[in-house]
């Protein structure tokens, strides 16, 4: 809590308990910042904010209000500066590790936390905010500034000195991270995604490259040397570049072997070979793990001590996560929702499957229509049977989404069941001994986006309900 006079000189000693940009979430004592969204002007919700108890408002227009009103030139910029000041500049105290890229952000970010320990390193991203003191879901991969700086402060108060965080392309596009600087920046890979926001792959890459402008002068940029955009990112980097991959990299990956028990590979660093046995399945997880190791080494951790911790890593929720309810077939929960992620996932499943592969999946509405035919073809080509269903349809008709998914394949090894729970149940009903049921797309999400609402929904809860 702070006084308004501490935040803005010359204003009254009104208590400010929090910062909000959503008028519906205002509680007595909050300050309401009227930011300008892509489709919303929050000046339109001043009356609602005040009726809900706002103690003050920050505006960029001339308004009349019954509470102290601070007028600034740009409320979006002011939000970041206000939040930083309100929470006592937490971004300057934490050592920040940022991971961006199309696939692997969540996995890399959480591996880093697990290697360092959740008592000293926090995690923020798709799976929420996590450290030894809390484990909570959050709305966006990278939060708006009113919550972002609050989370930073909570991690510090919990004793964290480091924060491993996912940074989405949308966060850079929306300027949420403009005043945040990182000790380490990791780029996992770039494939087409989120073109509903960025419109072109060039715009998407440009937003990803924005992270390079937020690395501290003495920081490191860690790049996947095998990615097609490696040279472009290396050229744009102003900090020291560290590479990983199979191609003459600083952290060189060799001889990957995927078994039903683990993933083995040789990691060569500074001309020394290290034998890695990881419980994380797949070639792509050899890359994710190596990126995480590189980051922790750049933070001056001893590589021998890091490698000792790898066999104790746990499979991350919603990432090639095997679920066991004593069923006679395998169940894998995975977040795969792009062509590239499925292309990387199925080779792993093919190595460990014992029978048929049955896939339950869909595609999100309101975005990336162009990717659907190619993603659908990959799923149909690599599955013995597919049940297409809803996956955050928003305002789109699910049948039309499925039409897109099957549009360029000549296979008919599928059916459509719109209700996702029914689709999952049907897959389990038809699964025979030793088959593998892949439930893909939602991972550990706890909502279904239908029209403009986020309805409570969880694949994991649905799966559990089938067996209980």
- What is the CATH architecture term of the largest domain? 3-Layer(aba) Sandwich
Q: How helix-rich are the residues, as a percent range?
A: 25-40%
Proportion of residues in extended strands: 15-25%
CATH class identity of the largest domain = Alpha Beta
Q: What fold name stands as the CATH topology of the largest domain?
A: UDP-N-acetylmuramoyl-L-alanine:D-glutamate ligase
- Average pLDDT, rounded to a whole number, is 93
Strand arrangement within the widest β-sheet reads 10-9-8-11-7-12-13-14-15-16-17
What's the main sheet like?
11 strands, mixed
Low-confidence stretches are none
Task: Determine the N-to-C terminus distance.
Answer: 46 Å
Please, how many helices? 16
Going by CATH, the homologous superfamily of the largest domain would be Mur-like, catalytic domain
